[in-house]
Automatic annotation (TrEMBL):
InterPro entries: Aminotrans_3, PyrdxlP-dep_Trfase, PyrdxlP-dep_Trfase_major, PyrdxlP-dep_Trfase_small. SUPFAM superfamilies: PLP-dependent transferases (SSF53383). The keyword ATP-binding does not apply. It comes from Debaryomyces fabryi. Signal peptide: none annotated. Keywords: Pyridoxal phosphate. It comes from the Eukaryota. Its EC number is 2.6.1.11. This is Acetylornithine aminotransferase, mitochondrial. The keyword Cytoplasm does not apply. Pfam families: Aminotran_3 (PF00202). One of its GO terms (cellular component) is cytosol.
Length: 455
């Protein structure tokens, strides 16, 4: 039987993420709110997975996509291009002359990271360095659902069923997490030097002639909850990569596209990656859109070699997605939303820290711009995690939903198995009053769970 309006998903034909618990049915979404079919209003404090950048149901974006649909919805990029794809590329690269040479548009972050892996390998292949096909990433990381992205990722639980499929050509070093990784008495500089030395040792262990690239999220997203790198980390890492002819690839699928107050999160660090991947907020949730940005070093080698990029997708440079991307960028630039991200982000961080400093289970509040994570602990002094079987992060997320707020829960924060956090990533146009609302609801949801599960 076909229903025109779904009222119950308990017997749904659709494969949901959980086969036991049915998700809430969304009737509509507008601005900062999600309206459920049961009548509840939810303030979207996380944009799903940090996707929403200019709010839900923005009429400008909807009109731009609709207009493009009436012009051309699809052409194959082997033979054709479209003005809308060319325009989006021009908009995104403007101002980055000398740092970025080309951009490639895909649909998902997973696709973008797969493409980054392939272009890195092709870059060396075109130079006669065919043995450079191995990669290094960090233990607590996430780089996508496809096979290369999964092999790059250090997300234990997401990898576990597919470990036998993961390639042994992908290697791991420690994540850059000052809150948990820095030793007692160790300075930030010493910690950074230790991490850089670990990467160098790993390259030498594998063989520099075999390593193509080092992948890292500029600010780690769902795996550890908005962990920012120690000062000087990426500069030190880049020196090691340059020394051994290894490409530095920045995964900004979650933290980029303006989420931290600049289009690229690396603009607030002392380095420029060879390749950057972006997604999520890039299309604002209006159409699937991701991107791979390459510097001239990469492009020049391909141009002087095969003069091609050996990675094609049926829906790459999809016109409807590009139209959405242009509209999103237009709104962000016209309304000066990146400045708002910086201002409101600073306020959000300060408010969270102040309101949660008396919590016994909030171990760390960290982030930048409108990208903040809260890590929960059993003991703030020892940083011992709460029993994973309690699922405190998910319980706080569920409690927040009851209180009318959507946040993004995470687990396995410490080692892939233990540790919990939530992530906050609202739309770029958020106001002071809305920040106060988020903080109030987050604090109430945490303190209620704290009393119930950690008396």
């Amino acid at each position: 039987m076909i229903h025109t309006e779904l009222e119950d998903v308990s017997n749904s034909d659709l494969m949901h993420r959980s086969l036991r618990e049915a998700p809430d049915i969304v009737k509509c979404a507008k601005g900062a709110y999600i309206f459920l079919q049961n009548g509840q209003e939810i303030f979207d404090g996380c944009g799903g997975a940090a996707v929403i950048s200019v709010g839900h149901g923005n009429s400008e974006v909807i009109q731009a996509v609709s207009k493009q649909l009436s012009v051309v919805s699809y052409v194959h990029t082997f033979e054709f291009t479209t003005p809308v794809a060319e325009k989006l590329a021009n908009i995104l690269l403007k101002g980055y002359n000398g740092k970025i040479a080309k951009v490639y548009f895909a649909n998902s972050g997973s696709e973008a990271n797969e493409a980054a892996v392939k272009v890195a390998v092709q870059y060396f292949y075109e130079q006669g360095k065919a043995s450079k096909t191995q990669f290094i990433s960090r233990k607590q990381s996430y780089h996508g659902n496809c096979l290369a992205g999964m092999s790059l990722s250090g997300h234990v639980l997401r990898r576990r069923p597919f470990e036998n499929l993961a390639s042994d050509r992908f290697h791991k070093v420690s994540e850059a997490n000052e809150y948990r990784g820095k030793k007692n008495g160790e300075s930030t500089n010493e910690y950074v030097e230790r991490l850089a030395h670990e990467l160098e040792e790993k390259i030498l262990e594998i063989g520099a002639d075999n390593v193509a690239g080092f992948f890292a999220e500029t600010i780690v997203g769902a795996t550890t909850g908005c962990i920012t790198a120690p000062k000087g980390y990426f500069r030190a890492i880049q020196k090691v990569c340059d020394k051994y002819d290894v490409l530095l690839i920045a995964d900004e699928i979650m933290c980029g596209s303006g989420r931290t107050g600049t289009f690229f999160a690396w603009e607030q660090e002392d380095f420029v990656p060879d390749i950057t991947t972006s997604g999520k907020a890039l299309g604002g949730g209006y159409s699937p859109l991701s991107a791979v940005f390459m510097n001239s070093k990469i492009v020049d080698v391909l141009l002087n070699g095969s003069a091609s990029f050996n990675n094609g997708h049926t829906f790459q440079c999809y016109p409807l997605s590009c139209a959405a991307g242009i509209a999103v960028q237009k709104i962000i630039q016209r309304d000066n939303l990146l400045q708002n991200v910086k201002k409101m982000g600073s306020y959000l961080g300060q408010k969270l820290m102040k309101e949660l400093e008396r919590s016994r289970i909030v171990g760390n509040v960290r982030g930048r711009g409108l990208f903040w994570g809260i890590e929960f602990v059993k003991d703030r002094l020892t940083k011992e995690p709460i029993d994973p079987s309690i699922h405190i992060g998910q319980r706080i997320q569920q409690n927040a939903l009851k209180n009318g707020l959507a946040v993004y829960p995470g687990f396995g924060t410490i080692d892939g198995l233990s540790g919990d956090h939530i992530l906050i990533a609202p739309s770029y146009g958020i106001t002071l009053d809305q920040v106060d609302l988020i903080v109030q609801k987050v604090a109430a949801s945490i303190f209620e769970m704290e009393q119930k599960y950690c008396p």
